[in-house]
Amino acid sequence: MIALLRGQVFEKHPNRLIVDVAGVGYDVQVPLSTFYTAGDPGSEIALRIHTHVREDQLSLYGFATALELSMFERLIAVSGIGPKLALSVLSGIETKDLVGAIQRNDLARLTGIPGVGKKTAERMCVELRDRLPKAMVASDATPSPGDALRDDLVSALTNLGYHRQAVDKSLDKLVDNVGEQRFEDVLRSALKDLSRA
Questions:
Q1: Are residues 58 and 91 in the same domain?
Q2: What is the dihedral of CA 148, 76, 85, 87, to 10 degrees?
Q3: Is the full-model pTM beyond 0.85?
């Protein structure tokens, strides 16, 4: 299993790099974030590698940071997300923004990524919310007033016996400028909405 490649950039394309390691060229697929940090052909590079093995193919996916690699490996563990879509996700959104969108269940932000539909975005939120890289979650330590209000509402409604998915769906409809709304008003509206469902 290849875990790291250190060598020189031989060729550079937006979705792949060819890395020359002691005369052997490795074709490595990369997200745009890694492509932008890679130097011009001839410059030194070190990539963290995920080796993906299938019956008919061995593919290398390279990342400039351990965090990107960690998110990639978590994404491909989600049912319905393969390596190509995971790479597309990491190319379409900054890693910290992705973590924030998953934590907030921000389906609109996630479906804005090319190749990610509503069902895939929902699966990402459900399956990854508790499995995000701890370093990333800790660095997002200053939630906005809207995030804090939403967390309080989710807690209140799930404690009243409503399912998390129904609560998230209702809050997505109701909460726009949450920072400017009162907890009691949004809770009342959410209860009305949930009782109709």
A1: no
A2: 80
A3: no
